[in-house]
Design goal:
By secondary structure, this protein is of the alpha/beta class. Helix content is 28%, strand content 17%. It has a six-stranded mixed beta sheet with strand order 6-9-10-3-11-12, sandwiched between helices. A two-stranded parallel sheet has the order 1-2. Helix 4 packs across helix 5. The protein binds adenosine-5'-triphosphate and magnesium ion (MG).
Length: 276
C-alpha cells in the first residue's frame, strides 16, 4: 500500500502568511493485524487537492483516515509524511499539521468559543473564531442564549447532531491545518447547509489539502480524486465524471441518490441490451 499526501511546509497560520508547499507523502503497507482492514490501498494527492473517500459502512474509510493521524498504526509498512515515516515524527508535531473532524464529535465542557479555538494557534482572535464558525456554517451559534459564550457540556446537550458537527468542523478549520480530514462530518446537516459548506471549504483562507469521507455524492463529486472503498480495497478511483460513467458502486449510488446529469450507461452494456 502506498498513500502520498502533499502537506509540507512552513506554517504561519495566525499571520496568514503564505505557506510553502505543504506536502505529506504517506505510504502504508498494511494496517496492524488488529485491524487488517485495508488491503493494497495506494493513492497520492498533490498539494491543495481534495481526496474524497466513499464506500459502504464498514468498508474501511475511518480506518484509512485514522492511519493518517496515527490513531491506528501501521504494521508491515510505512506511512510517510513529508517523506518521513510517521513513526519517526513527534506525534504532536504530526497532529498539529492535521485538522480532523470525525464521526465521533468530541466537545468540551466550556464555551462554544473555546470549543472552536481548542486546537487553534494561541493568538487566534475572537474575529477569527467567528470567521471559522461562519465557514463551518455554524450561524446557529448567534441564536444560542449567550452566543459564543454559551457553555456547552461534553455531550453538547441542547445541540442537535448537525450543530455539534459544525462546531467540530469549525474547530478543525480554526486549527488552520495543512491537511484537513473530514470523516462523515456533514452527515447530519441538511442539503442546503452542506452545499454552503462545500463552497466554504473551497474558499478557505489558507492552503490546505483535504480528505473528505462522505456518503453523499454531492459531497464528493467536486473532489479531484475519489476513492471508492469496498471491503478495505479500492474498488474504484477517478473523478466524478469518470466514475459516474462506468458500471459500479459509484454509479449505483449516483442513481440511488438521484444525481442529475448522469452520463448514459457505459457502451460496454450495449451488447447485453441488444441481446435482450
Ligand atoms: N480498532 C479496531 N479493531 C478491529 N477492527 C476494527 C477497528 N476499527 C474498525 N474495525 C473494523 O474495520 C472495518 C472498517 O471499519 P471502519 O470504521 O473503517 O469503516 P467505515 O468505512 O468508516 O464505516 P462507516 O461508514 O460505518 O463509518 C469494520 O469491519 C470494523 O469493524
Ligand atoms: Mg467511519
Amino acid at each position: 500500500m502506498k498513500f502520498i499526501l502533499p502537506a509540507r511546509g512552513s506554517r504561519t497560520p495566525s499571520t496568514g502568511a503564505p505557506r510553502a508547499n505543504a506536502a505529506a507523502a504517506w505510504s502504508s503497507a498494511a494496517l496492524p493485524s488488529l485491524t487488517p482492514t485495508l488491503k493494497d490501498v495506494s493513492f497520492s494527492v498533490t498539494q491543495g487537492q481534495t481526496l474524497a473517500i466513499l464506500g459502504a459502512t464498514g468498508s474501511g474509510k475511518t480506518t484509512l483516515v485514522d492511519a493518517v493521524t496515527r490513531m491506528l498504526d501501521v504494521s508491515g509498512g510505512t506511512v510517510l509524511v513529508d517523506g518521513v515515516d510517521v513513526r519517526l515524527w513527534d506525534l504532536q508535531a504530526l497532529r498539529r499539521r492535521i485538522g480532523m473532524a470525525t464521526q465521533r464529535v468530541q466537545l468540551y465542557s466550556d464555551t462554544v468559543s473555546s470549543n472552536i479555538a481548542y486546537s487553534a494557534p494561541d493568538d487566534i482572535s475572537e474575529d477569527d473564531v467567528a470567521l471559522y464558525a461562519r465557514l463551518a456554517a455554524a450561524d446557529f451559534i448567534c441564536s444560542l442564549p449567550e452566543g459564543f459564550d454559551t457553555i456547552i457540556g461534553e455531550q453538547g446537550t441542547g445541540l442537535s447532531g448537525g450543530q455539534k458537527q459544525r462546531i467540530a468542523l469549525a474547530r478543525a478549520l480554526a486549527k488552520q491545518p495543512e491537511i484537513l480530514i473530514l470523516d462523515d462530518t456533514t452527515s447530519a446537516v441538511d442539503l442546503e447547509t452542506e452545499k454552503q459548506l462545500r463552497k466554504n471549504l473551497q474558499e478557505l483562507p489558507y492552503p490546505c489539502t483535504k480528505i473528505i469521507v462522505a456518503q453523499r455524492i454531492s459531497a464528493v463529486r467536486s473532489a479531484d480524486q475519489i476513492l471508492v472503498l469496498q471491503d478495505g480495497r479500492i474498488a474504484q478511483r477517478g473523478t466524478h465524471e469518470q466514475l459516474a460513467a462506468c458500471e459500479g458502486y459509484y454509479r449505483d449510488i449516483c442513481l440511488l441518490q438521484g444525481v442529475q446529469g448522469m452520463p448514459d450507461a457505459p457502451a460496454a452494456n450495449a451488447p447485453a441490451k441488444e441481446v435482450r
